[in-house]
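Suppose you are handed a protein chain with no further information: no name, no annotation, nothing but its sequence. What can you learn? This example shows the usual starting point.
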Amino acid sequence: MQIEFNPDEIIEVQKYVSKYPEKRSALMPVMWMAQKKWGWISPEVMKYISELLEIPLSNVEGVASFYTMYFKKPMGKYHIQVCTNVSCMLRKGDQIYKHVSEQLGIGNLETTEDGVFSLEEVECMGACGGAPMIAINEDYYENIDMTKVDELINNFKK
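A reasonable first move is to predict its three-dimensional structure. Written in structure tokens, the prediction is:
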């Protein structure tokens, strides 16, 4: 697989770079673009971004390893994050996580055999007022319960 942005994506990278006094400041949005394009931040993608932004590879690796939003391995088409922090836990977030895990037959940071779903237990997603909550890709679902989770999963299976 060829790892490079197309001309339109390069223009977008240049827009990010132009917003900052140093190229390395555009690292996070460029990594997000890369993850959206390739599904995860592989070592090859890290090397490409390092060269593109003219920064040390160790800077890219450091950001990739620090922030959980960047996947270091392929994830499912639908990445389900279940919050189990205090507010969500008090409203059965931990039970929802266990339920999803059992429904899909996968554990934390695992992907179903068909590559459709991956699962992640997360600490806090900033939606305490709507606890318990889950996210599927970039969409939040608040005040969730087992029935709603099952409906969501079934809808994404279609």
